[in-house]
Amino acid sequence: MARKSKLTEAAVKIGTAMGKADRTAHQIAKAGLAAKDELADIAAQINSLKRQLLKTKKRLQRALK
After folding, report:
1. DSSP assigned state of 58
2. Pick from 64, 38, 65, 23: which is nearest to 46 by CA?
3. Which of 17, 24, 18 is closest to 32 using CA atoms?
4. pLDDT means per 10 residues in the chain (65 residues)?
5. Number of Cβ within a 10 Å radius of residue 61
6. What are phi and psi of 35, to 5 degrees?
7. What pTM, to 2 d.p., does this model score?
8. Could you tell me the maximum CA-CA distance found in the chain, to the nearest angstrom?
9. What is the rounded distance in angstroms from the CA atom of residue 50 to the CA atom of residue 45?
10. What is the C-alpha to C-alpha distance for residues 30 and 34, in angstroms, rounded to an integer?
């Protein structure tokens, strides 16, 4: 069996490093997308609570008059 040349070994190491970096980048992007979606959900809940608070405030003001 023929020995691998140093050039081939270097190419394999470079390819391996690129693959690991690519996999890590995909994982980070996936986590970022999940966080973005979760943040949008929280923002929607906050807006809903704001509207509810305004309605309650108006009812209370009418009741106190």
Report:
1. H
2. 38
3. 24
4. 82 96 96 95 97 96 91
5. 9
6. -65, -40
7. 0.59
8. 96
9. 9
10. 6
**Structure tokens, 5:** 């040349």
Query: What are the counts of helices (DSSP H) followed by strands (DSSP E) for the chain?
Result: 1, 0
**Residue 51 neighbours by CB distance under 10 Å:** 10
Residue where the block lists tokens 């108006």: 58
Q: Record the tokens describing residue 65, joined without a space.
A: 């008059």
Reduce the secondary structure of 9-38 to three states and give it as a string: HHHHHHHHHHHHHHHHHHHHHHHHHHHHHH
pLDDT at 2: 63
